Amino acid sequence: MFRLRATIISIGNELIQGRIVNTNASYLSRRLTLLGIDVVAHIVIGDNFDDVSKALDTALMIFGSNIIITTGGLGPTYDDITSEAIARYLGEEYVINEEALREIREKYESRNMPLTPERIKMAYMPKSAKSLRNPVGIAPGFMISKDNFIIIALPGVPAEMEGIWESSVEPYLKRFSDRRIAETYIRLVGAPESTLAAYINRFVRGKNNIYVKTHPKGHETRGPINDLYIMVSTSQEIDPSEECFKICNELIDILKKNVNGLLIEGECKCNRSL
Amino acid sequence: MFRLRATIISIGNELIQGRIVNTNASYLSRRLTLLGIDVVAHIVIGDNFDDVSKALDTALMIFGSNIIITTGGLGPTYDDITSEAIARYLGEEYVINEEALREIREKYESRNMPLTPERIKMAYMPKSAKSLRNPVGIAPGFMISKDNFIIIALPGVPAEMEGIWESSVEPYLKRFSDRRIAETYIRLVGAPESTLAAYINRFVRGKNNIYVKTHPKGHETRGPINDLYIMVSTSQEIDPSEECFKICNELIDILKKNVNGLLIEGECKCNRSL
After folding, report:
1. Around A179, how many Cα atoms within 13 Å sit in the side-chain half-sphere?
2. Could you tell me the end-to-end alpha-carbon distance of chain B, in angstroms, rounded to an integer?
3. Complex ipTM, two decimals?
4. How far is CA A103 from the centre of its chain?
């Protein structure tokens, strides 16, 4: 089965300097994962041409991605260089996209604001780009399809990024994925992660369609609490929730039987994605 | 001047699947930036050997980093593979670190808990690693110094990562940096980012020691608000706060003079870092 591999490239000095947290990457990762698309890497870089080019090289050559989603750098300021950097990387002309310009002009004109060079700048895109309407703010996103990969460029402001994702990108990507996902969380109280590890390691061995992870929430030796996460992926024809429910109950039985004093909060409620 | 270039590699399927937000990378980026160390990239990958190796290659070969900080994958579970993956990448033996083992044994023995294989696993490190005591949880971090780079491996649990950072890593890295940083935020109300952009672009041109960025908080056309961030870096001998204060007031004067109806909230209060 052909597997889609996505890399998210987040562009912005404010990220690389740690002034803000990269919630965009987790939003996009979560959405892609629930679509059945494997996210293989996030790469975060500052606002400069060289690093955009290095990040694209890394995503394509090193991580073998076929979907690349960038966030940030589409605005009107001097350091918003994503569109031009992608054009240069692809060896494409960096030109005004007529659809983007129309959208931008309408938005400013409706407020009686003139089209300055900084505003027109947001309509410049690589020549082969398809503009993606921004239902929240001004700067449009864009998408470029090549033979073996696509690049989707979204703004960095979270509400705008999510707006374009929901209205244009997710509906588009959905058709390419033939996997289904279901997942569940259960809280395990009273056993250290290192005790659970032995049983979980043995249980998951050789099962490629499931992913099990303990997330320590208390303290390993003083009052241990672990949130157990189970994710199951199946092909289209199989209901992933049923599969997840079966696997979850099997694992809980093994843990109950073997781990002294283990308390289980909640039950195997597997939610199917999208 | 020799510039330190840091890359942060965050390892964990929960990150790549978007189930949690990568606050570790922003914490570390912020601390490194305030130390005067340039953070050039964050790379986030899942828990697997190949991707750790790809991320290390990217950090060293593509981004030319001399400081690499990893978070995650040091715990007792089957998918905690960071230490072994780094050992493999460096071509080093993966062995019990006696200092790490002593620390782990003490912590479990003080709770009358035996040393199981899963617990001993946390003492395995690349042969040349120096163990870093974990003042919060169990799993120690470690540091490896090579001729032209260092790798520092920290746990993924934020409190533990921060505990080791503060007690061991920051005091160690501080001595290598000869730059000082000062910064300030000022709120600009009533002008769209695209209007401010023209004046800021001209102001920053050719000034390499300053970084200016507007962060839109309102809406570009309906009630625009922008937080203006200014960061100034200087060598040891110069007070960065004075320099920052001067630059901030210069820029504010230009904006006041040129942008109609601009309201400035706050003043140029430049804080010096560390």
Report:
1. 20
2. 20
3. 0.86
4. 27
pTM reported for the whole predicted model: 0.87
| Cβ atoms within 10 Å of B61's Cβ, excluding its own | 12
What torsion do the CA atoms of A18, A23, A24, A26 make, to the nearest 10 degrees?
A: 120
On whether the CB atoms of residues B109 and B123 are closer than 8 A, the answer is: no
Buried b (16+ CB within 10 A) or exposed e, A99-138: bbbebbeebbeeeeeeeeebbbbbbbbbeebbbbebebbb
A26 neighbourhood in chain B, CB within 8 Å: 15, 18-22
Query: Longest C-alpha distance within chain A, in Å?
Result: 72
Burial category of A265 from C-beta neighbours within 10 Å (exposed 0-12, middle 13-18, buried 19 and up)? exposed
CA A44, CA A27: separation in Å to the nearest integer?
15
pLDDT, one tens digit per residue, over B150-200 is 999 999 999 999 999 999 999 999 888 878 889 999 999 999 888 898 899
Cβ of A46 and B33 within 8 Å? no
Mean pLDDT per 10-residue interval, chain A, length 274 residues: 86 95 97 93 97 98 97 92 98 98 95 91 97 96 96 97 97 86 92 89 88 82 86 86 93 94 89 65
A22:B20 CB<8 A: no
Contact list, A215 vs chain B (CB under 8 Å): 14
Give residues with Cβ within 8 angstroms of A38, minimum separation 6.
A3, A4, A5, A6, A32
How many angstroms from the chain centroid is the CA of residue A122?
24
Alpha carbons within 13 angstroms on the beta-carbon side of residue B271 total 7
A161 at the B interface (CB within 8 A)? no
- Give the number of residues written for chain A: 274
| A137 interfaces chain B, CB cutoff of 8 Å | yes
Helix, strand or coil, per DSSP, at residue A95: strand
Pairing status of strand B67-71 against strand B5-11: parallel
The parts of chain B modelled with pLDDT lower than 70 are 1-2, 220, 272-274
3-state secondary structure of A161: helix
